[in-house]
Amino acid sequence: MVKIESRHLNFWYGNNQVLDNISLQIERNTVTALIGPSGCGKSTFLRLFNRMNELIPESKHRGEVLMDGKDIYQANVDVFELRKKVGMVFQKPNPFPKSIYENVAFGLKIKGINHQVFIKEKVERSLQQVSLWEEVKDKLSKPALALSVGQQQRLCIARALAVEPSILLMDEPTSSLDPLSTAKLEELIRELKAEMTILLVTHNMQQAKRTSDKTAFMYKGNIIEYGKTASFFSNPSNQSTQSYLSGQ
Asked: In this predicted model, what pLDDT tens digit does every residue of 160-196 receive, in sequence order?
């Protein structure tokens, strides 16, 4: 069953067209990797699914972006409610200037949850999911910004998971992580697809192979090739895809 979809999607920053007529269906409870050279539109495409591009002046889109069959850009869509369902993990960690505990609990409180025992349990579970609990369980009141970069990134992922989104957008989430933390996160991504749909931007071809069910190759604002990851890498059908993969 299709969870998220774009139909004839075009996007501009001012007069600069970044995405060109993209139609793509992403199935529920799968991991889809977006790969391609820098500047091809991967991150822009990703951010359309939680309407973050609207924060950029003079940006505009044409076409449809659907979640569960409904266009999320309709005037009656509550963007705040939408972003409760769509978690986002950025390339660089962005913890709030709060304690470790308050970072993870923040989204729950915004949702109106005030039951302290429930919040405590969710904070612990989320930190366990990202393999951070054992490292921080005795210093939850310490500032999140005092953590290492890798720990901060795992904290941000825990913050996203705490509110149980149905979709998780990940923009090169392991670029600042060491190999061990990267391996743990990739394992987590594979586990999470049982609970949510994941769209992953990555420049790491091996990571795409290890974690994703399907892979889309983007080039100059277009989806050039899209298919099951196993066949995508073993036998790409498009010449541009072949050239890109051979250069990695």
From this structure: 999 999 999 999 998 878 888 888 889 989 999 999 9
pTM as predicted:
0.91
Task: Indicate the angle between helix axes 149-162 and 179-192, nearest 10 degrees.
Answer: 10
Assess contact for 229 and 33: CB atoms under 8 A: yes
Contact 31, 190 (CB under 8 A): yes
Strands 70-71 and 167-171: unpaired
Q: How far apart are CA 60 and CA 14, in angstroms?
A: 8
* Residue pointed to by tokens 């309709």: 74
Helix axis angle for 100-110 and 149-162, nearest 10°, is 20
The closest alpha carbon to 46, from 14, 91, 79, 78, belongs to 91
For 62-111, what is each residue's pLDDT tens digit?
Answer: 999 999 999 999 999 999 889 989 999 998 899 999 999 999 999 899 88
Plot region of 131 (φ>0 → left; ψ -120 to 50 → alpha; else → beta): left
The residue type at 55:
L
CA-to-CA distance for 210 and 189, rounded, in angstroms? 10
DSSP assignments along 32-86, one per residue: EEEE-STTSSHHHHHHGGGTGGGGSTTEEEEEEEEETTEETTSTT--HHHHHHHE
Tell me which amino acid residue 126 is: S
- With residue 167 as reference, give the H or E element that holds it: strand 167-171
236 phi and psi angles, rounded to 5 deg: -65, 140
Largest CA distance in the chain: 56
Buried/exposed 191-213: b ≥16 CB within 10 Å, e otherwise: ebbeebbbbbbbebeebbebbbb
